[in-house]
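Write out the 3D structure for:
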Amino acid sequence: MQVEIQDDDICGFCGLAGADKIPHPMRWPGEESAETKYVHAECEVGECKQAYWALTDEQRQAFLRTI
């Protein structure tokens, strides 16, 4: 059985099929932007965590004051 992959099925973070959500529009400083209009929820959470922990507490607080 051959599975047809559609362009909008590709995750903008990992590049694999099966993307299941639209990326959140707000990102932490340094957080990568998705390259497609859909992402895997797990990939987005991983990218968010990585960016969050790369910031100092002061940087996080400063960013949160801007939103």
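The first helix runs from residue 41 to 54.
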